[in-house]
Every structure is written in structure tokens, then in C-alpha cells.
Design brief:
Number of strands: 4
CATH architecture: 2-Layer Sandwich
Order of helices and strands: HEHEEHE
Shape: elongated
Mean pLDDT: 88
CATH class: Alpha Beta
Number of helices: 3
Low-confidence stretches: none
Oligomer: single chain
Strand order of the largest sheet: 2-3-1-4
Helix content: 25-40%
Number of domains: 1
CATH topology: Alpha-Beta Plaits
């Protein structure tokens, strides 16, 4: 019975142990003014696990660094959409 408890503990701890920092680039084509990158950046920073954002109006792109054990790309794109800016994954940055 002790083995079952140990196994359950290991399974519960596994996702945080396997989590890693990831950086992605998101296309945000609807940005068209100086305030847009600020709004997108604020929306992304509110997502749990996001540690860094860099939003470029000229390229209409947001680069986001996050803990993939705490959030997902879907949560990032949902955050920009909720702020009024559709976004899609362009690439994973290495």
C-alpha cells in the first residue's frame, strides 16, 4: 500500500518537474497604433506563468517567455483575443 501512495505522489509532482521555460512568437496582425502593443503586453503579462513579453508593432508580433507547466500557447492566444487582438502561433523560439 505504501508503494501506491508513493506512486500517487510522484505522479502528482511529475508535471512541475517536467515543466520548462518556453519562448514563442505570436502573430498579432490587428495591432495598428502605438497603444496596441501596450494592451497586448498587459494582457499577456496577466497570464500565470508568463515571465517576459516583447511586443513589436512594426512586425505585428509578440514574443512571450513562459513556464509551460503553468500555461499554454492556447491560454496566451486567448488572452490576446480577450483584449481584442486575434493572435496565432508563428514559431517556437529556441
Amino acid at each position: 500500500m505504501k508503494n501506491v501512495g508513493l506512486l500517487a505522489t510522484l505522479v502528482a509532482l511529475a508535471p512541475p518537474l517536467l515543466a520548462a521555460t518556453q519562448t514563442v512568437a505570436l502573430s498579432v496582425p490587428d495591432m495598428n497604433c502605438a497603444a496596441c502593443p501596450i494592451t497586448v503586453k498587459m494582457a499577456l503579462r496577466k497570464v500565470s506563468g508568463v515571465s517576459k513579453t516583447d511586443v513589436d508593432l512594426d512586425r505585428r508580433e509578440a514574443k512571450v517567455t513562459f513556464d509551460d507547466g503553468k500555461t499554454t500557447v492556447d491560454a496566451l492566444t486567448r488572452a490576446t483575443k480577450d483584449a481584442g487582438y486575434h493572435s496565432t502561433l508563428v514559431r517556437v523560439v529556441k
